[in-house]
Amino acid sequence: MANSNAFRRRTLVKSAVLGAGSTVLLARHGRAAADKPQYGGKLRVAYQLAPGALDPVVGRSGGDAYYWRQFCDQLVDADPALKPRAETSLAESWDVSDPKSVTLKLRKGVLFHDGTPFDAAAVKFNIERLLDPATKATPRAAFTAVESVEAVDEHLVRFRLKRPWGSVLSTLADRGGAMNSPTAVKALGADYAFKPVSTGPFKVAEFVSGSHVRFVRNEKYWGRDGDGNPLPYLDEIVMNIMADPTVQVSALKAGDTDLVYLPVRDVGGFLDNPKYNVETFQGGGVVFTLSFNQAKPPMDNQNLRLAVAHAINPEAIVKAVHFGRAIVAKGGMWPTGSWAYDPTVARPSYNVAKAKALLAAGGKPGGFEMDALMWPSEVNTPTAEIVRAQLGAIGIKLNLKVAEVTVATEKFYYGQEAPLFLTSWSRYPEPDWNASLIYRSDGYYNAGKVKNAALDALIDEGAATVDLEKRKVIYRKVDEIVLGEALMVPEIYGITYAAAAKHVMGLDQVFGWDAKMYLHRMWLKKV
Fold first, then answer.
1. Which of 12, 216, 266, 371 could form a disulfide with 418 if both were Cys (CB 3.0 to 4.6 A apart)?
2. Model pLDDT for residues 374-399, shown as the tens digit of each residue
3. Structural domains of the chain sorted by starting position, each given as residue range(s) with its CATH number in brackets
4. Nearest alpha carbon to residue 202 among 68, 52, 66
Protein backbone atom coordinates (compact mmCIF):
# COMPACT_ATOMS: atom_id res chain seq x y z
CA MET A 1 0.00 0.00 0.00
CA ALA A 2 1.26 3.49 -0.81
CA ASN A 3 2.66 5.51 2.11
CA SER A 4 2.52 2.55 4.50
CA ASN A 5 4.64 4.27 7.16
CA ALA A 6 2.19 7.17 7.31
CA PHE A 7 -0.64 4.68 7.54
CA ARG A 8 1.06 2.93 10.49
CA ARG A 9 1.63 6.27 12.25
CA ARG A 10 -2.07 7.18 11.89
CA THR A 11 -3.01 3.72 13.13
CA LEU A 12 -0.83 4.00 16.25
CA VAL A 13 -2.19 7.42 17.13
CA LYS A 14 -5.77 6.29 16.60
CA SER A 15 -5.29 3.13 18.68
CA ALA A 16 -3.74 5.09 21.54
CA VAL A 17 -6.69 7.48 21.63
CA LEU A 18 -9.21 4.65 21.51
CA GLY A 19 -7.31 2.73 24.16
CA ALA A 20 -7.48 5.68 26.54
CA GLY A 21 -11.18 6.10 25.94
CA SER A 22 -11.89 2.43 26.49
CA THR A 23 -9.98 2.48 29.78
CA VAL A 24 -12.27 5.22 31.04
CA LEU A 25 -15.28 3.24 29.89
CA LEU A 26 -14.15 0.09 31.72
CA ALA A 27 -13.37 2.03 34.88
CA ARG A 28 -16.89 3.41 34.90
CA HIS A 29 -18.77 0.27 33.91
CA GLY A 30 -16.39 -2.60 34.71
CA ARG A 31 -16.98 -5.37 37.20
CA ALA A 32 -15.58 -5.41 40.72
CA ALA A 33 -12.23 -7.18 41.04
CA ALA A 34 -13.76 -9.96 43.17
CA ASP A 35 -16.30 -10.84 40.50
CA LYS A 36 -14.20 -13.07 38.27
CA PRO A 37 -16.34 -14.31 35.37
CA GLN A 38 -17.44 -17.91 35.42
CA TYR A 39 -17.89 -19.85 32.20
CA GLY A 40 -20.92 -21.90 31.23
CA GLY A 41 -24.65 -21.83 31.70
CA LYS A 42 -27.69 -20.74 29.76
CA LEU A 43 -29.05 -17.19 29.88
CA ARG A 44 -32.80 -16.90 29.31
CA VAL A 45 -33.93 -13.59 27.85
CA ALA A 46 -37.46 -12.36 27.17
CA TYR A 47 -38.05 -9.92 24.31
CA GLN A 48 -41.32 -8.75 22.81
CA LEU A 49 -40.65 -8.55 19.05
CA ALA A 50 -40.17 -11.49 16.72
CA PRO A 51 -37.36 -10.99 14.18
CA GLY A 52 -38.41 -9.97 10.69
CA ALA A 53 -35.14 -11.57 9.59
CA LEU A 54 -31.96 -12.66 11.33
CA ASP A 55 -29.81 -11.57 8.40
CA PRO A 56 -29.01 -7.94 9.35
CA VAL A 57 -28.77 -6.82 5.73
CA VAL A 58 -32.38 -7.62 4.78
CA GLY A 59 -34.13 -7.13 8.14
CA ARG A 60 -36.45 -4.12 8.22
CA SER A 61 -37.32 -3.81 11.92
CA GLY A 62 -35.09 -2.12 14.48
CA GLY A 63 -36.07 -4.96 16.80
CA ASP A 64 -34.09 -7.39 14.64
CA ALA A 65 -30.87 -5.97 16.11
CA TYR A 66 -31.63 -7.55 19.49
CA TYR A 67 -30.98 -10.86 17.75
CA TRP A 68 -28.26 -10.23 15.20
CA ARG A 69 -26.11 -8.26 17.65
CA GLN A 70 -25.48 -11.56 19.46
CA PHE A 71 -23.92 -13.37 16.50
CA CYS A 72 -22.45 -10.55 14.40
CA ASP A 73 -19.42 -8.31 14.67
CA GLN A 74 -19.08 -4.96 12.94
CA LEU A 75 -16.32 -3.94 10.58
CA VAL A 76 -15.98 -0.85 12.77
CA ASP A 77 -17.71 -1.07 16.13
CA ALA A 78 -18.83 1.89 18.26
CA ASP A 79 -18.64 2.40 22.01
CA PRO A 80 -21.60 3.63 24.09
CA ALA A 81 -20.49 7.23 23.47
CA LEU A 82 -20.95 6.55 19.71
CA LYS A 83 -17.23 6.71 18.92
CA PRO A 84 -15.38 4.12 16.78
CA ARG A 85 -13.71 1.43 18.90
CA ALA A 86 -10.90 -0.63 17.36
CA GLU A 87 -10.57 -3.35 20.01
CA THR A 88 -14.06 -4.72 19.34
CA SER A 89 -13.99 -4.24 15.55
CA LEU A 90 -13.25 -6.65 12.70
CA ALA A 91 -11.00 -3.93 11.30
CA GLU A 92 -8.09 -3.42 13.66
CA SER A 93 -7.25 -0.07 12.08
CA TRP A 94 -8.33 2.21 9.26
CA ASP A 95 -7.21 5.08 7.09
CA VAL A 96 -9.73 7.74 6.02
CA SER A 97 -7.24 10.46 5.09
CA ASP A 98 -7.87 10.13 1.35
CA PRO A 99 -11.26 11.71 0.47
CA LYS A 100 -11.65 9.27 -2.43
CA SER A 101 -10.96 6.03 -0.53
CA VAL A 102 -11.26 4.23 2.79
CA THR A 103 -8.74 1.53 3.70
CA LEU A 104 -9.39 -1.05 6.39
CA LYS A 105 -6.74 -3.32 7.87
CA LEU A 106 -8.60 -6.46 8.93
CA ARG A 107 -8.07 -8.51 12.04
CA LYS A 108 -6.24 -11.77 11.35
CA GLY A 109 -7.38 -15.22 12.44
CA VAL A 110 -11.12 -14.48 12.38
CA LEU A 111 -13.39 -17.25 11.11
CA PHE A 112 -17.03 -17.32 10.12
CA HIS A 113 -19.15 -19.77 12.08
CA ASP A 114 -18.94 -22.24 9.18
CA GLY A 115 -15.15 -22.32 9.46
CA THR A 116 -14.46 -20.23 6.35
CA PRO A 117 -12.01 -17.32 6.72
CA PHE A 118 -13.04 -13.73 7.24
CA ASP A 119 -10.82 -11.78 4.87
CA ALA A 120 -10.78 -8.93 2.35
CA ALA A 121 -12.56 -11.05 -0.25
CA ALA A 122 -15.40 -11.62 2.22
CA VAL A 123 -15.71 -7.88 2.89
CA LYS A 124 -15.79 -7.21 -0.85
CA PHE A 125 -18.57 -9.80 -1.26
CA ASN A 126 -20.61 -8.33 1.61
CA ILE A 127 -20.45 -4.72 0.43
CA GLU A 128 -21.19 -5.67 -3.18
CA ARG A 129 -24.14 -7.79 -2.00
CA LEU A 130 -25.43 -4.82 -0.01
CA LEU A 131 -25.12 -2.49 -3.02
CA ASP A 132 -26.83 -4.90 -5.41
CA PRO A 133 -30.42 -3.62 -5.91
CA ALA A 134 -31.61 -7.23 -6.15
CA THR A 135 -30.69 -7.76 -2.49
CA LYS A 136 -33.09 -5.01 -1.38
CA ALA A 137 -30.68 -4.29 1.45
CA THR A 138 -32.09 -2.03 4.15
CA PRO A 139 -28.85 -0.01 4.57
CA ARG A 140 -28.13 0.41 0.84
CA ALA A 141 -28.90 4.16 0.77
CA ALA A 142 -26.23 4.78 3.42
CA PHE A 143 -23.55 3.22 1.18
CA THR A 144 -24.15 5.09 -2.07
CA ALA A 145 -20.75 6.80 -1.80
CA VAL A 146 -19.04 3.47 -2.57
CA GLU A 147 -17.90 3.14 -6.18
CA SER A 148 -16.15 -0.21 -5.81
CA VAL A 149 -14.45 -2.48 -3.28
CA GLU A 150 -10.93 -3.80 -3.75
CA ALA A 151 -9.30 -6.68 -1.87
CA VAL A 152 -5.75 -5.27 -1.79
CA ASP A 153 -4.43 -8.38 -0.10
CA GLU A 154 -5.82 -10.99 2.27
CA HIS A 155 -6.26 -8.57 5.18
CA LEU A 156 -6.42 -5.18 3.52
CA VAL A 157 -9.56 -3.89 1.82
CA ARG A 158 -10.13 -0.55 0.12
CA PHE A 159 -13.40 1.20 -0.70
CA ARG A 160 -13.11 3.39 -3.77
CA LEU A 161 -15.49 6.32 -3.36
CA LYS A 162 -17.62 8.42 -5.70
CA ARG A 163 -17.36 11.29 -3.24
CA PRO A 164 -15.92 11.92 0.25
CA TRP A 165 -17.59 9.79 2.93
CA GLY A 166 -17.06 11.33 6.37
CA SER A 167 -19.70 9.11 7.98
CA VAL A 168 -18.09 5.83 6.97
CA LEU A 169 -16.75 4.64 10.33
CA SER A 170 -19.94 5.02 12.31
CA THR A 171 -22.04 3.75 9.39
CA LEU A 172 -20.03 0.52 9.53
CA ALA A 173 -21.04 0.13 13.18
CA ASP A 174 -24.57 -0.81 12.17
CA ARG A 175 -26.20 -3.50 10.03
CA GLY A 176 -24.28 -2.52 6.90
CA GLY A 177 -21.02 -3.34 8.66
CA ALA A 178 -22.16 -6.77 9.89
CA MET A 179 -20.35 -9.48 7.93
CA ASN A 180 -22.03 -12.58 6.51
CA SER A 181 -20.33 -15.75 5.28
CA PRO A 182 -20.17 -15.61 1.46
CA THR A 183 -20.22 -19.42 1.36
CA ALA A 184 -23.41 -19.62 3.42
CA VAL A 185 -25.15 -16.79 1.56
CA LYS A 186 -24.50 -18.48 -1.79
CA ALA A 187 -25.49 -21.94 -0.55
CA LEU A 188 -28.71 -21.00 1.25
CA GLY A 189 -30.22 -18.34 -1.00
CA ALA A 190 -33.51 -17.05 0.40
CA ASP A 191 -33.23 -19.41 3.39
CA TYR A 192 -30.23 -17.42 4.61
CA ALA A 193 -32.59 -14.80 6.09
CA PHE A 194 -33.20 -17.06 9.10
CA LYS A 195 -30.06 -19.23 8.96
CA PRO A 196 -27.32 -16.60 9.08
CA VAL A 197 -23.61 -17.32 9.50
CA SER A 198 -21.39 -14.53 10.80
CA THR A 199 -18.27 -14.02 12.95
CA GLY A 200 -19.69 -13.05 16.35
CA PRO A 201 -19.48 -14.50 19.86
CA PHE A 202 -22.53 -16.73 19.45
CA LYS A 203 -23.87 -18.90 16.63
CA VAL A 204 -27.51 -19.29 15.62
CA ALA A 205 -28.48 -22.81 16.66
CA GLU A 206 -32.26 -22.70 16.28
CA PHE A 207 -35.03 -20.39 15.17
CA VAL A 208 -38.64 -21.33 15.94
CA SER A 209 -41.06 -18.81 14.48
CA GLY A 210 -43.13 -17.10 17.14
CA SER A 211 -41.34 -18.93 19.95
CA HIS A 212 -37.61 -18.35 20.37
CA VAL A 213 -34.13 -18.01 18.95
CA ARG A 214 -31.37 -20.11 20.50
CA PHE A 215 -27.70 -19.18 20.31
CA VAL A 216 -24.69 -21.28 21.32
CA ARG A 217 -21.16 -20.27 22.16
CA ASN A 218 -18.74 -19.72 19.29
CA GLU A 219 -15.78 -21.72 20.59
CA LYS A 220 -13.48 -20.11 18.04
CA TYR A 221 -14.43 -16.50 18.74
CA TRP A 222 -11.55 -14.05 18.46
CA GLY A 223 -12.72 -11.61 21.15
CA ARG A 224 -11.19 -11.25 24.62
CA ASP A 225 -12.21 -9.39 27.76
CA GLY A 226 -10.07 -6.75 29.46
CA ASP A 227 -8.04 -9.43 31.25
CA GLY A 228 -7.37 -11.41 28.10
CA ASN A 229 -9.94 -14.13 28.81
CA PRO A 230 -11.81 -15.55 25.80
CA LEU A 231 -15.35 -14.34 25.15
CA PRO A 232 -18.17 -15.15 25.47
CA TYR A 233 -18.64 -16.63 28.94
CA LEU A 234 -22.05 -18.23 28.40
CA ASP A 235 -22.60 -21.59 26.71
CA GLU A 236 -26.06 -20.72 25.46
CA ILE A 237 -28.64 -17.97 25.16
CA VAL A 238 -32.34 -18.51 24.55
CA MET A 239 -34.26 -15.41 23.53
CA ASN A 240 -37.93 -16.15 24.11
CA ILE A 241 -40.44 -14.08 22.15
CA MET A 242 -42.99 -12.73 24.64
CA ALA A 243 -45.18 -10.06 23.10
CA ASP A 244 -46.79 -9.07 26.40
CA PRO A 245 -44.42 -7.20 28.75
CA THR A 246 -46.61 -8.25 31.69
CA VAL A 247 -45.81 -11.87 30.88
CA GLN A 248 -42.11 -11.00 30.68
CA VAL A 249 -42.13 -9.41 34.12
CA SER A 250 -44.09 -12.33 35.59
CA ALA A 251 -41.56 -14.76 34.10
CA LEU A 252 -38.68 -12.81 35.68
CA LYS A 253 -40.37 -12.78 39.08
CA ALA A 254 -41.14 -16.51 38.84
CA GLY A 255 -37.54 -17.34 37.93
CA ASP A 256 -38.52 -18.55 34.45
CA THR A 257 -36.38 -15.96 32.70
CA ASP A 258 -33.20 -14.13 33.70
CA LEU A 259 -33.24 -10.81 31.87
CA VAL A 260 -35.89 -8.42 30.53
CA TYR A 261 -36.21 -4.82 29.45
CA LEU A 262 -38.76 -3.45 31.90
CA PRO A 263 -42.04 -1.78 30.99
CA VAL A 264 -41.96 1.63 32.63
CA ARG A 265 -44.88 0.92 34.96
CA ASP A 266 -42.81 -1.78 36.71
CA VAL A 267 -39.53 0.10 37.05
CA GLY A 268 -40.16 1.45 40.54
CA GLY A 269 -40.91 -1.97 42.00
CA PHE A 270 -37.70 -3.45 40.65
CA LEU A 271 -35.50 -0.52 41.68
CA ASP A 272 -36.58 -1.10 45.27
CA ASN A 273 -36.26 -4.90 45.17
CA PRO A 274 -32.91 -6.32 46.41
CA LYS A 275 -33.44 -9.53 44.39
CA TYR A 276 -32.74 -7.73 41.12
CA ASN A 277 -30.26 -5.39 39.47
CA VAL A 278 -31.48 -2.61 37.17
CA GLU A 279 -29.47 -0.65 34.61
CA THR A 280 -30.66 2.53 32.86
CA PHE A 281 -29.88 4.07 29.46
CA GLN A 282 -30.97 7.67 28.81
CA GLY A 283 -32.04 8.56 25.28
CA GLY A 284 -32.12 4.96 24.09
CA GLY A 285 -34.09 5.87 20.99
CA VAL A 286 -37.23 7.61 19.79
CA VAL A 287 -40.12 5.75 21.42
CA PHE A 288 -42.81 7.67 19.54
CA THR A 289 -42.56 9.46 16.22
CA LEU A 290 -44.93 10.66 13.51
CA SER A 291 -43.73 9.26 10.18
CA PHE A 292 -45.48 10.85 7.21
CA ASN A 293 -45.85 9.67 3.63
CA GLN A 294 -45.62 13.07 1.99
CA ALA A 295 -46.79 11.67 -1.36
CA LYS A 296 -50.06 10.23 -0.06
CA PRO A 297 -53.14 12.46 0.50
CA PRO A 298 -53.94 14.14 2.77
CA MET A 299 -50.37 14.13 4.11
CA ASP A 300 -49.06 15.38 0.78
CA ASN A 301 -50.13 18.79 2.11
CA GLN A 302 -47.44 20.35 4.30
CA ASN A 303 -49.91 22.49 6.26
CA LEU A 304 -51.95 19.41 7.15
CA ARG A 305 -48.85 17.50 8.26
CA LEU A 306 -47.92 20.42 10.50
CA ALA A 307 -51.49 20.58 11.81
CA VAL A 308 -51.20 16.95 12.92
CA ALA A 309 -47.85 17.61 14.60
CA HIS A 310 -49.10 20.69 16.46
CA ALA A 311 -52.18 18.79 17.71
CA ILE A 312 -50.09 16.18 19.57
CA ASN A 313 -49.35 16.74 23.27
CA PRO A 314 -46.35 14.50 24.06
CA GLU A 315 -46.25 15.64 27.69
CA ALA A 316 -49.66 14.04 28.25
CA ILE A 317 -48.44 10.80 26.65
CA VAL A 318 -45.29 10.73 28.79
CA LYS A 319 -47.41 11.07 31.94
CA ALA A 320 -50.20 8.68 30.97
CA VAL A 321 -48.26 5.97 29.13
CA HIS A 322 -44.66 6.24 30.35
CA PHE A 323 -45.40 7.14 33.99
CA GLY A 324 -43.07 10.12 33.59
CA ARG A 325 -40.14 7.87 32.65
CA ALA A 326 -39.48 9.24 29.16
CA ILE A 327 -38.24 12.48 27.61
CA VAL A 328 -40.34 14.92 25.59
CA ALA A 329 -38.46 15.42 22.32
CA LYS A 330 -36.88 18.82 21.89
CA GLY A 331 -34.77 18.10 18.81
CA GLY A 332 -34.98 15.85 15.79
CA MET A 333 -34.49 12.12 15.25
CA TRP A 334 -31.10 12.16 16.98
CA PRO A 335 -31.94 11.77 20.69
CA THR A 336 -30.21 13.03 23.81
CA GLY A 337 -26.66 11.74 24.16
CA SER A 338 -26.02 11.82 20.40
CA TRP A 339 -23.50 14.39 19.19
CA ALA A 340 -26.00 15.53 16.54
CA TYR A 341 -28.74 16.22 19.12
CA ASP A 342 -29.81 19.87 19.02
CA PRO A 343 -32.62 20.94 21.38
CA THR A 344 -32.64 24.52 20.06
CA VAL A 345 -33.89 23.80 16.53
CA ALA A 346 -37.38 25.09 15.72
CA ARG A 347 -39.92 22.27 15.63
CA PRO A 348 -43.69 21.72 15.82
CA SER A 349 -44.92 21.83 19.41
CA TYR A 350 -48.31 21.32 21.03
CA ASN A 351 -50.52 24.25 20.07
CA VAL A 352 -54.20 23.58 19.34
CA ALA A 353 -54.90 27.08 18.00
CA LYS A 354 -51.98 26.82 15.57
CA ALA A 355 -53.10 23.33 14.54
CA LYS A 356 -56.58 24.63 13.67
CA ALA A 357 -55.10 27.56 11.74
CA LEU A 358 -52.95 25.13 9.75
CA LEU A 359 -56.02 23.03 8.95
CA ALA A 360 -57.61 26.11 7.44
CA ALA A 361 -54.43 27.00 5.56
CA GLY A 362 -54.38 23.45 4.19
CA GLY A 363 -57.91 23.76 2.86
CA LYS A 364 -59.50 21.53 5.53
CA PRO A 365 -60.90 23.93 8.16
CA GLY A 366 -63.41 21.33 9.37
CA GLY A 367 -60.84 18.57 9.58
CA PHE A 368 -60.59 15.34 7.60
CA GLU A 369 -60.39 11.55 7.88
CA MET A 370 -57.32 9.40 7.29
CA ASP A 371 -55.74 6.02 8.07
CA ALA A 372 -52.69 5.51 10.26
CA LEU A 373 -50.65 2.32 10.53
CA MET A 374 -49.33 1.19 13.91
CA TRP A 375 -47.97 -1.92 15.57
CA PRO A 376 -49.33 -3.03 18.93
CA SER A 377 -47.41 -2.98 22.20
CA GLU A 378 -47.98 -1.97 25.80
CA VAL A 379 -46.68 1.50 24.89
CA ASN A 380 -47.76 1.92 21.26
CA THR A 381 -51.39 0.91 21.72
CA PRO A 382 -52.33 3.47 24.40
CA THR A 383 -50.16 6.09 22.68
CA ALA A 384 -52.13 5.61 19.46
CA GLU A 385 -55.43 5.92 21.32
CA ILE A 386 -54.32 9.20 22.91
CA VAL A 387 -53.14 10.49 19.53
CA ARG A 388 -56.49 9.58 18.00
CA ALA A 389 -58.28 11.54 20.73
CA GLN A 390 -55.96 14.54 20.41
CA LEU A 391 -56.42 14.68 16.65
CA GLY A 392 -60.16 14.21 17.08
CA ALA A 393 -60.20 17.38 19.17
CA ILE A 394 -59.30 19.43 16.07
CA GLY A 395 -61.59 17.54 13.70
CA ILE A 396 -59.25 14.85 12.34
CA LYS A 397 -60.75 11.36 12.40
CA LEU A 398 -57.94 8.81 12.64
CA ASN A 399 -58.58 5.21 11.57
CA LEU A 400 -55.97 2.97 13.18
CA LYS A 401 -54.76 0.04 11.08
CA VAL A 402 -52.92 -2.46 13.28
CA ALA A 403 -50.31 -4.99 12.15
CA GLU A 404 -47.31 -6.78 13.66
CA VAL A 405 -44.21 -4.54 13.57
CA THR A 406 -42.48 -6.07 10.56
CA VAL A 407 -45.70 -6.22 8.57
CA ALA A 408 -46.68 -2.66 9.51
CA THR A 409 -43.23 -1.40 8.53
CA GLU A 410 -43.42 -3.11 5.12
CA LYS A 411 -47.00 -1.90 4.56
CA PHE A 412 -46.06 1.71 5.22
CA TYR A 413 -42.62 2.15 3.69
CA TYR A 414 -42.97 -0.31 0.83
CA GLY A 415 -46.68 -0.91 0.36
CA GLN A 416 -47.72 2.76 0.63
CA GLU A 417 -50.83 1.71 2.57
CA ALA A 418 -51.33 4.79 4.76
CA PRO A 419 -50.32 8.46 4.91
CA LEU A 420 -49.18 8.21 8.56
CA PHE A 421 -47.24 5.66 10.63
CA LEU A 422 -47.21 5.84 14.44
CA THR A 423 -43.96 4.12 15.29
CA SER A 424 -40.65 4.25 17.14
CA TRP A 425 -37.04 4.51 16.00
CA SER A 426 -33.75 3.12 17.22
CA ARG A 427 -30.73 5.07 18.38
CA TYR A 428 -27.91 5.11 15.81
CA PRO A 429 -24.28 6.22 16.14
CA GLU A 430 -24.21 7.95 12.78
CA PRO A 431 -26.70 10.72 11.88
CA ASP A 432 -26.29 9.90 8.21
CA TRP A 433 -28.05 6.59 8.91
CA ASN A 434 -31.26 8.45 9.69
CA ALA A 435 -30.62 11.11 7.08
CA SER A 436 -29.89 8.75 4.19
CA LEU A 437 -32.44 6.07 5.02
CA ILE A 438 -35.36 8.27 6.14
CA TYR A 439 -34.89 11.67 4.50
CA ARG A 440 -33.10 11.05 1.20
CA SER A 441 -35.37 10.85 -1.82
CA ASP A 442 -34.29 7.24 -2.43
CA GLY A 443 -34.11 6.16 1.24
CA TYR A 444 -35.94 2.95 2.14
CA TYR A 445 -37.73 4.63 5.06
CA ASN A 446 -38.80 7.62 2.95
CA ALA A 447 -42.25 6.26 2.13
CA GLY A 448 -43.21 8.96 -0.36
CA LYS A 449 -39.88 9.15 -2.23
CA VAL A 450 -40.66 12.81 -2.95
CA LYS A 451 -37.67 14.57 -4.48
CA ASN A 452 -36.20 17.30 -2.27
CA ALA A 453 -33.04 18.54 -3.95
CA ALA A 454 -32.02 20.89 -1.11
CA LEU A 455 -32.40 18.17 1.51
CA ASP A 456 -30.59 15.58 -0.61
CA ALA A 457 -27.70 17.99 -1.12
CA LEU A 458 -27.39 18.61 2.63
CA ILE A 459 -27.46 14.88 3.33
CA ASP A 460 -24.70 14.28 0.80
CA GLU A 461 -22.68 17.12 2.34
CA GLY A 462 -23.16 15.74 5.85
CA ALA A 463 -22.06 12.27 4.82
CA ALA A 464 -18.99 13.63 3.03
CA THR A 465 -17.80 16.03 5.75
CA VAL A 466 -15.21 14.81 8.26
CA ASP A 467 -15.00 17.77 10.66
CA LEU A 468 -17.46 17.13 13.53
CA GLU A 469 -18.34 20.77 14.21
CA LYS A 470 -19.11 21.35 10.54
CA ARG A 471 -21.25 18.21 10.50
CA LYS A 472 -23.27 19.52 13.46
CA VAL A 473 -24.11 22.65 11.50
CA ILE A 474 -25.18 20.59 8.50
CA TYR A 475 -27.44 18.29 10.52
CA ARG A 476 -29.05 21.24 12.21
CA LYS A 477 -30.00 22.46 8.73
CA VAL A 478 -31.34 18.97 7.95
CA ASP A 479 -33.45 19.14 11.12
CA GLU A 480 -34.75 22.57 10.16
CA ILE A 481 -36.08 21.22 6.85
CA VAL A 482 -37.38 17.91 8.19
CA LEU A 483 -39.13 19.43 11.20
CA GLY A 484 -40.16 22.61 9.39
CA GLU A 485 -41.89 20.58 6.67
CA ALA A 486 -43.04 17.83 9.10
CA LEU A 487 -41.48 14.98 7.16
CA MET A 488 -40.89 12.98 10.34
CA VAL A 489 -41.57 14.45 13.77
CA PRO A 490 -40.22 12.69 16.87
CA GLU A 491 -42.35 13.29 19.94
CA ILE A 492 -40.77 11.26 22.76
CA TYR A 493 -37.24 9.98 23.48
CA GLY A 494 -36.95 6.82 25.53
CA ILE A 495 -35.28 5.77 28.74
CA THR A 496 -34.41 2.07 28.69
CA TYR A 497 -34.40 -0.11 31.82
CA ALA A 498 -32.84 -3.57 31.94
CA ALA A 499 -33.57 -5.82 34.92
CA ALA A 500 -31.98 -9.14 35.81
CA ALA A 501 -31.88 -11.56 38.71
CA LYS A 502 -28.90 -11.11 41.06
CA HIS A 503 -27.07 -14.18 39.75
CA VAL A 504 -26.86 -12.57 36.29
CA MET A 505 -23.56 -10.72 36.13
CA GLY A 506 -22.34 -8.10 33.68
CA LEU A 507 -25.64 -6.24 33.50
CA ASP A 508 -23.69 -2.99 33.47
CA GLN A 509 -22.42 -4.02 30.01
CA VAL A 510 -25.76 -5.08 28.53
CA PHE A 511 -26.38 -1.83 26.62
CA GLY A 512 -24.67 -1.26 23.31
CA TRP A 513 -24.47 2.17 21.71
CA ASP A 514 -28.06 1.73 20.49
CA ALA A 515 -29.37 0.67 23.95
CA LYS A 516 -30.06 -2.80 22.56
CA MET A 517 -28.84 -5.99 24.16
CA TYR A 518 -25.21 -7.04 23.82
CA LEU A 519 -25.01 -10.31 25.73
CA HIS A 520 -21.46 -11.52 25.05
CA ARG A 521 -20.09 -10.14 28.35
CA MET A 522 -22.90 -11.50 30.51
CA TRP A 523 -22.23 -14.45 32.82
CA LEU A 524 -24.02 -16.44 35.48
CA LYS A 525 -22.77 -16.60 39.06
CA LYS A 526 -23.06 -20.09 40.43
CA VAL A 527 -24.82 -20.15 43.80
1. 371
2. 999 989 999 999 999 999 999 999 99
3. 4-12+37-258+503-524 (3.40.190.10), 284-495 (3.10.105.10)
4. 68
